[in-house]
Specification:
- The longest helix is centred in the last third of the chain and has 31 residues.
- The strands form two sheets. A seven-stranded mixed beta sheet has the order 1-8-5-6-4-3-7. It has a five-stranded mixed beta sheet with strand order 2-11-12-10-9, covered by helices on one side.
- The chain is an alpha+beta fold.
- Helix content is 43%, strand content 11%.
- Strand 5 and strand 6 form a beta hairpin.
- The protein has 15 helices and twelve strands.
- Helix 6 packs antiparallel against helix 7.
Length: 497
Amino acid sequence: MELCDRGTAVAAFLSKEMRSVNWHRKQEENMRVNNAVNTVTDSVSDDDSSKAQQSGPTLVPSAETENQTAALSEGKRLEGQLDSFMFRSHLEASAGKTTAEAHGSGHSAAASGAPDFLGMRLGTNQYGEEVRVNKEVGDPQGYENRLQAIAVARMNSVEPAAVIQSMDGKWHAVQTTANFDTPTQVAADTPTRAVEGLPSAAHIDEVGAHVRDIRQELNQIDTRMREAAYHGTTPSPEDVRRKEQLSEELPKEQKLLASLVFGVPESEIQFNRSAQQDAPGKLNIDADMPDAAGMEHFDTKNLSGAQSFSISLDRLDHPREAAGTLYHELSHAHDAQTAQKWLEKFRQEAPPSKRDPQSFQEWIRSKDGGTKLQAWLGQQKGLSKADAEVVADAAAHVNVSTEARAYVHSISSGAQAGNLTACADQVRSYAQAIRGGKTGEPLPASANRQALAQELRNTYQHLPNDKARAEFKAAITKAAAEGGYPDLWITKLDFMK
């Protein structure tokens, strides 16, 4: 469709329903001001005594960090087909607990001690409407960070939506009674640490269509310009002016689209030509990402360095999958942070102490270093066996544990949501990755495989009836075969036979 034929649609785009988006564009900094309460950062200290005890929520401050370029070292992982549905994170499960115990699979929020937000007043929005929590979506135990909760809200098509940080530091995705993107007043008498309303997702399709129309018209203009050059003539002045106008408009509309798709302010989004430009602290969207939906960068030569992650520009054409890809990458980033934390601690304590990072990396991959690391990990309190395996994998530059966790969580949550297509997509991609040598199967005796098998078993048992269980098994078995690896370990679990 030509842009000149879109008068009605553009008018609708600027209607009252879109005012919250326009306000959001103009007031990004104001939307996160402190509401007379101390602000809280995304990261939560492991020391409970350091957690601020606050009487009410704040608007989450913008996470502005220096625009550093992440080193794409040997620790970089390029992943394909990561159209993941929502899944649970149990990366901080304590030693000896199964995934179900750590996150209360199949239990109510009240029974597990999770906060109950139903009916909670969040404040007043820009239209003077009182906003309350209508329901919580996803895991009632919450998620490790804000972006995970946002991704869950987007994957579940929750509208209007907000994310809440409870007093334990976990983030929760909720549906609200009205849009809370740009509040004028935030309730200060609720047992929460922070609240953030998400921009309305109601116009994602419309903005996406507008972006596609701009691209189409630019391609048509470029074709006419090439033809003119071929015939030795100059392009028409109208084409030159129009291309300049559209070239200026496109990045603005793409940024608006990304903000709506991912549910974050435009200031947190960075568009790049390639992954070389990815910056920590930003949601990087890369134009040149072949054969992949997402990528996470982990510079193993700088154990104290920040990770960055990016998502393919093409994902904006698939909003629900884009949110899933974001969650998948955050899972890997969290694993990488866990590995960095414990490897740096080991570097400081292991003899000889305080090796320089490069020498440490070389030594830890040796037989002597690996043996010492394994023994040291087994002695650390507060480190689960599953997380210890993730740390050991990272030291050896292996991704078996973190990939197994990510895929199984997405399979489990897809089943819980009744989305067998999402389950099948993940199984198929996992099978393809193993067959292609991009990852491997966790060993049968590994803590991660045992915990993940239990997670899948719990998921299977909590499906509503025998028909749903049969359909789940059939979808998993078929997808593994389609991925070229019918003997995938998931298909061999006792309840799958």
